[in-house]
Amino acid sequence: MIMKILTFPDPRLREVSKPVTEFGPHLQKLADDMIETMYDAHGIGLAAPQVGELIRMVVIDTRPRDDKGRRYKDEDMTEMEKAVQQPLILINPEIVKGEGKTTFDEGCLSVPGYFETVERNLVVELKAFDVNGKEFRVKSDGLLGICMQHELDHLEGTLFIDHLSFVKSNKIKSQIKKHGYPPKQKEEEGDKEKSSDSKKLEV
Questions:
Q1: Which of 12, 112, 164, 183 could be stapled to 168 by a disulfide with Cβ–Cβ 3.0 to 4.6 Å?
Q2: What whole-number distance in Å separates Cα of residue 114 and Cα of residue 192?
Q3: Active site residues
Q4: How far is CA 146 from CA 39, 95, 136, 143, 153, in A?
């Protein structure tokens, strides 16, 4: 089922999500719906609060797709990324360790049409639970590492624009509140642009 993705300034995006305490089929159903919604929106990550579910859960899939929707080439993937089975379902995820620094031009399905450079850890290690309540760990760098950090921010009510300077962040927020979001490009034009620019992704 395709779910509605909330966009800034919806106040639910600013809520701190609650930990998941009950595991089972209902979480698998939500995860399946979130993954379907993420793919439909041409995203590579989606957090539960972005679809109005204020729980600590995210889904991620940064793997290359077909030629039409491709945004990240096989040869651009790091060895760490290739070792992680995706799509990822992370429940109650926590960052265990972060190493180094890197920057990336990030966008967000909840702030569509805007991209800005954000500083993140180069390598990040998480611990999380699967839909059955089993704990596991995942470690990555590259696009997957960036995406994991971006999605965990959503669980704290933080958007990527909050990582920008006060002036730049306020400018974007004011533009959105005053003028709304830029119109979406035609499907084929959007796919072409995303395919040609692997450093500018909505995560």
A1: 164
A2: 17
A3: 151
A4: 18, 12, 19, 5, 11
